[in-house]
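Operator note (shift B, R.M.): manual run for DUF2516 family protein requested after the automated queue skipped it. Running by hand, logging everything below so the morning shift can see what happened. Input copied straight from the record, untouched. If output looks odd, do not overwrite the archive copy; leave it for review.
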Amino acid sequence: MLINGFYSVLDLVSRALFLFALFAFVDAAIRRPDAYRAMEKKSKTFWLVVLGISAAVLWFLSLVSFLPLIALVAVIVYMVDVRPAVRGITGGGGGVRPRLFRRGGGGSSSDGPYGPYNGRR
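Run finished. Output pasted below as returned.
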């Protein structure tokens, strides 16, 4: 009975990770291709192929094998590194914008996170 419970929990985790990979694939599909180039990331086609293969691996293979772990790492890299950068260019809030795409006039080199740094006055 304990073994059956373990495998049912493992199956639920596996399906949740598949949905995570599917979300990453759809997110990569709706982003503009030039945003990937602007942020100096791999191409949109590359990420669609990697995330599509990752979703397929997570759907068909058990988490006990080694391949789904590699697929999960690829999805996490997209979600943590690529998605925020590309999302910052295409809109949708958050993300890191390169200096080229930032709003405003720039600022001096002595500016801190809350405005100009005036020293110890």
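Quick read of the result: The beta strands are 111-112, 115-116. The chain has one domain: 2-96.
Leaving this for review. - R.M.
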